[in-house]
Amino acid sequence: MKRSNKPIFWSLFGAGGMLSALCGPALIFITGIALPLGWVPRAYERAHAIALHPLGKLALVAVIGLFLFHGCHRMYHCVHDFGIHVGPGMKAAFHGFAALGTAVALVLVLAVS
Amino acid sequence: MNTYKRSMAGWWQRNPFYRWYMLRELSCVFVTAYALVLLLGLYRLVQGPEAFAAWQAALAMPGSLVFHLVALVLVGYHSWTWFKIMPKTLPRISLPDWAVVTGGIGAVIAVSAALLWTALG
Q: What distance in Å separates the CA atoms of residue B75 and residue B94, rounded to the nearest whole number?
């Protein structure tokens, strides 16, 4: 019997669900509302310092990557909830999109200088 | 042979519980879109201070602020439901349900306070 790939995607969904539950609302408020309204002092310098630090790089890839895996996995199930048949192609598309976004984030944090 | 299949159209509108479920599931669209906004910000950060300032200016557009406000509410709701059902989703542990939920919500408040303190301070 072929081994199921479900545990991998469910773990990524769960990790992203946990991370977004813990820090999602605060992050959305900081980058989406406080930052554009000018409430974040020295925003560029501090964002740059985060992206330069190895732990900051890890945090950025974790937030972007896991949020994508969480969101895409839930969207994939939502499509099913709406009564549309989801086959392996659709699954590959949603998870592939999340994997691609994570890869781009990884390349970008490594490119920060 | 034709078998009868009950239509799935609008099933979530039949019961308030299903509507709340769908609202929670809707948060996934906003989590995904928000991750892409951050990814774009990271790309602009790599390009330098001017590009980052342009990203910051784009975030100040009314549409973007409304998007983030809605995302804040929906992800906040996801956050609440995530810890509310945690006693059922965790492997069996020897803590009472209320302790798991309170601990989870407490962790959200602590992490949020730390992030806000760091970012706005």
A: 29
